[in-house]
# Entry
Amino acid sequence: MNTLKGQDILDGSQFSRDQLDLIMNVAEDFKRRLENSKGLDLLKGYVLAALFFEPSTRTRLSFETAIHRLGGSVIGFSSAESTSVAKGETLEDTIRTVDQYVDLIAMRHPAIGSAVRAAQIAEHPVLNGGDGAGQHPTQALLDLYTIRAERGKVDGTTIVLCGDLKNGRTVHSGVEIYKHYQCKLVFVAPEQLRMPSEVTEKLIAQGITVEETTDLPAALKKADVLYMTRIQKERFTDPEEYERLKDSYILTREMVETINPRLIVLHPLPRVNEITTDVDNLAGAAYFRQARNGVFTRMALLALVSGKIS
# Structure
């Protein structure tokens, strides 16, 4: 049963296990169907607004690919400077206007909570493509799909999350989803970039096994999946602090082959230098397959919130 019809996709905590399994199964079905076809007509006539107030490559283009593969079309922008926002228009008025033109809205914005503000105004479903250092639920869903595709299962997986966990919206959404699969979570970060304490405490209160450390090699020994993230320069107000922290963790081929050759490596991308390029052709280096999975997962979300799947 599709309980996502007409729903906004705003936060990793909004999903039940049944909804997550439904999204995964629909995404897998779309992947199979696209092996024999360039596209479907499930959302023929539908228009998606892709409103990207903040830079994006994978999220924006995979949303646009997803709606095209489903037979729909897209309008939108990739820079707020090219819109009436540059003239002083509020987010609320932008959403009120765009909502008159489309059936679905995918949005990225630098302010935490911006997607919730948009959803409170829009009559059509809003899908959060990242709100500052807040949430990025569609990324977390494609990460979940990738873990399932790479391992064959998600339940009981030990996931090491490494890098900027303070500002990392992908990990903030991800842990809310992984808890439904009783994953063991290991947080690796410099002290200044630790996972927010309220997130960690909430997980522990819900019975999730959580470990915090600054020692990446030690964490890799117990990992099934490593989720690397970059140190996000754009989230720092102090350039000197960024320079001190930017190279805190760098994954190399030698580390993987020496410590854990069976490791599956994920990254939401873009990377800077936190994964060396000699890791790319290892069997477990899944981050570009992960990017491709964004199309199938976002197709599933668009079809489900549109109510085109019962």
Remarks:
- DSSP finds eleven helices and nine strands in the chain.
